[in-house]
Design goal:
By secondary structure, the protein is mainly α. It has a domain at about 5-85. It is about 55% helix and about 0% strand. The termini are far apart. The longest helix is centred in the N-terminal third of the chain and has 25 residues, at about 5-25. The chain is rod-shaped and about 100 Å long. The protein has helices at about 5-25, 35-55, 70-80, 85-95.
Length: about 120
């Protein structure tokens, strides 16, 4: 998991969920119904942005952030997705094996071009 995107997702997603809950509570009061709806809408936007960053942290497309429309269910779905950055990181970070001291160097890969011309000894 990419830590930078994961930290951003937490900074956006947690307030998003809190604002969704607060907006829901506010919308129960008829006098604050419109304000509650706007707070819920803002919370949903933050949650979508946070889940998009969480998806990027897992090596997925940011379009997975649209799961924010499902609120906590979307978060659970994203949390269950496999982390795709694990395999990519392993391939990138695994150094090639080092030959023991005194061993001949490994053969060069074929160049794909024509063989060199023989030198004239005349």
């Amino acid at each position: 998991m990419i830590a930078r995107y994961n930290n951003i997702s937490l900074a956006l997603g947690a307030p998003g969920i809190i604002l969704q809950i607060a907006g829901y509570v506010m919308a129960q009061n008829p006098a604050q119904q419109q304000v509650g709806f706007l707070v819920q809408l803002g919370g949903t936007a933050l949650l979508i942005a946070g889940l998009a960053m969480y998806a990027k942290a897992k090596g997925r497309s940011p379009a997975w952030g649209l799961m924010g429309f499902l609120s906590l269910i979307g978060l659970i779905v994203l949390a269950c997705l496999k982390d795709e950055t694990v395999n990519a990181r392993r391939e990138y970070e695994t150094p090639p094996p080092v030959p023991p001291f005194g061993a001949p160097p490994p053969p060069l890969p074929p160049s794909g071009g024509p063989p060199p011309l023989p030198k004239d000894r005349g």
